[in-house]
Amino acid sequence: MWSKYKYFILSGxxxxxxxxxxxxxxxxxxxxxxxxxxxxxxxxNYILYKQLGNLFNEAPKPSFEPLKATLNDTLSNTNLIIINxxxxxxxxxxxxxxxxxxxxxxxMIISRQITDLLLDTLGLSTNFDxxxxxxxxxxxxxxxxxxxxxTYNILFRAYFDSLSTAQPLGYRSDSLPNxxxxxxxxxxxxxxxxxxxxxxxxxxxxxxxxxxxxVLSYLPDQTTIWDEYYxxxxxxxxxxxxxxxxLTTDGLRQALYLILLATFVYMIFASKRRQRxxxxxxxxxxxxxxxxxxxxxxxxxxxxxxxxxxxxxxxFLADIRERHRIDTAALDEGFVQKLSxxxxxxxxxxxxxxxxxxxxxxxxxxxxxxxxxxxxxxENFYNxxxxxGK
Length: 390
Hints:
Elements: H1 2-24, H2 46-56, E1 61-63, H3 67-70, E2 78-87, H4 91-102, E3 106-114, H5 116-122, E4 125-130, E5 135-140, E6 147-150, E7 156-162, E8 167-172, E9 177-184, E10 187-192, H6 200-203, H7 208-216, E11 223-227, H8 232-239, H9 242-247, H10 252-270, H11 288-302, H12 305-324, H13 333-343, H14 347-362, H15 368-389
Helix pairs in contact: 1-10, 12-15, 14-15
């Protein structure tokens, strides 16, 4: 019996062992800034969404469509809450938001980056700085309590540097406003630039739940719309390939491993029963393009954005050393002025580029948006340098 069924028995034991090891493997923490009501990861909004029903005595209504489709002229006595690391809306969506508030409703946008289409209309502007604090603290108007949270992934902090008619309602530890409110038409609009303070990790830190309830208390107790359209999570899911979906889904991943193991075992034992094929030696070919494609696919599958960003920084600095013959060991003010003088690129553009480099080097996890921003800043540098040389 053993000799007849040994291959099946061995394959079954191997599959069972692989399944047991996979089940015992601890799940890795996903540090994605999703801000979604579905995610229990540190930077998701699962806990906050569950508690909104207690704050407003009515469960919020999720929206999975852009503002143009969600908001209409018939809505009244309604709140809108948008939380994400970036709020980039088109003109028609901004118009729908402002019309919604003008009709007597309230909206609260909590985002580190807010589209200029909205800020310019309101006479507001934001700025960013780089924090080296071990903890980030923040407070509210007429409240001496200081709320603290970890600095993971929020070293690059935002604040309002131009308020126009807006009233500051909250501040950072350095007294710079990060939460403002203003009247618009018959309604009110609130803007907050620290979305991390509303995530699962922050709610469970100290007394941050009181901070969140105090911020949301500016919204009246009425019907509340919760946005799920303007989310980083949506972009992450959209960009994932079908193969990545399989690898990140329990069950599908184990099934794939079992299929690969079974195929490997079959190939080992089946090859003994067939004559070895004489290989055909092909002529030498230029495999440079295939190599580049393979390396590109490898980086895409690994999603190691920090490694990609650091390599991009090194290539850029190597190019500067070769063409302009300047030392890139210290990216200080002297380096910026010398590079600006040689290349003709404005100092502020180079400062933005160096700040982006420093952020990539400092944080542990780099999101794809950061790499996209890096490429845009580098491309902007070369375009202005070429224009200067003409």
